[in-house]
Every structure is written in C-alpha cells, then in structure tokens.
C-alpha cells in the first residue's frame, strides 16, 4: 500500500456520528467475506492473550520469563508446528479456513520460513474466525491443543539440548 493511501485511510478511520460520538462503518463482520489476513490479525491477538493467560499457570512473578516464553510460543515457527500436530483433530470446515488463511498473500518474517509463516497465518485465521463467530468452546479447545503441542515440543527441544528424553504426553 502506498503511503498516501495509508494516510487517507487513517485520516478517515473515525468520523463523527452527528451525536457527539464516532460513526461506525460496519455493524458486524461476515467471516466468509472478511480478508483472511484480517481474520489472522484477530486470531493473533486472541492467541497472544490465551498464551499469556495460560502461562500464569506456570509462573506468576517473573514477567521477563513470561514475556520470553509467550514470544516463543506465539512465533510463526511454533504455531506452524502446533497446527500440524493438531490438524487431524480439526473438522473439514476448519481445515478449509486454515487453507484460506495459509494461501493469503503476505510477507514472511525473518525468523520463519515462508511455509511456517503461511501455516501460522492459516492457524491464526482459524482462531480469528472462531473468535468472531463467538464459538468460544471450540476456540478454547483448539488453542489449548496448540498450547499443549507447543509446550511438548519446547520440552523436547530443551531435553535434547541436555541429552535427555521427554515422555510423550508429559505436557498434557
């Protein structure tokens, strides 16, 4: 997007409603018509909050540790691994939402491969869709599966560095 287009959008984002408030352009969102990247944007925010809250079950005083772990867990690399670990548990519709998000045109960050970044975008689009549809039970279930898969993977990496082995299911 060109900078002048960006400035025009930002400049017209909020407009007065004539009653002293702010006029809203949309009354909701049809997830079937929404950009997959917008869905991923919402899913990313949800997963960040889910992970940060979930980490409080393991640490409650060291903010630096919490922040570091959260950043690792929500990385494109770990989200891609998590998606592949839980893919079999998803419905065909959920896999379709993932594919739509994965195939959206975007740019990969430096710390992940293009495939990992696209997979994480698909995963986030799935979470964003469920969030906007207010399917909180399924949303929380999938997020917890992903969290468990990531925790298991992180434990295995730590153990491998120490020359140890982690029992399957230790994070569950």
Uncertain runs: none
What does the overall shape look like? globular
CATH third-tier fold name: Ribonuclease iii, N-terminal Endonuclease Domain, Chain A
Number of strands: 2
Number of domains: 1
Secondary-structure element sequence?
Answer: HEEHHHHHH
Task: Describe the strand arrangement of the main beta sheet, using strand numbers.
Answer: 1-2
CATH superfamily heading: Ribonuclease III domain
Question: How many helices?
Answer: 7
The largest sheet, given as strand count, sense and whether it forms a barrel, is: 2 strands, antiparallel
Query: Averaging pLDDT over every residue, what do you get?
Result: 91
Q: Structural class, from helix and strand content? A: mainly alpha
Rg over CA atoms, rounded to whole Å, is 19 Å
CATH class descriptor name: Mainly Alpha
CATH architectural type: Orthogonal Bundle
Give a verbal description of the structure.
The relative contact order is 0.14. It is built from seven helices and two strands; from the N terminus they run αββαααααα. The mean pLDDT is 91. By secondary structure, it is mostly helical. The chain has one domain: Ribonuclease III domain (Ribonuclease iii, N-terminal Endonuclease Domain, Chain A), CATH 1.10.1520. A two-stranded antiparallel ribbon has the order 1-2. A hairpin with a 5-residue loop joins strand 1 (15-16) and strand 2. The longest helix is centred in the last third of the chain and has 27 residues, at 136-162. It is globular. It has helices at 3-11, 36-55, 63-73, 76-86, 92-102, 114-132, 136-162; strands at 15-16, 22-23.
